[in-house]
Write a structure and sequence with these properties.
Elements (H helix, E strand, L loop, with lengths): L1 H11 L1 H8 L15
Length: 36
């Protein structure tokens, strides 16, 4: 059952997987990084 779920995930849940796998990194300027 797990194998079938993973095997079909790209077909049944493509939209959700695409949104999870989208690279969304935040960029910070050096002035925003605080030294502790």
């Amino acid at each position: 059952a797990i194998y079938e779920c993973l095997n079909d995930a790209h077909l049944k849940h493509k939209k959700e997987l695409d949104s999870l796998l989208t690279l969304r990194f935040q960029k910070f300027n050096k002035s925003q990084i605080m030294n502790v």
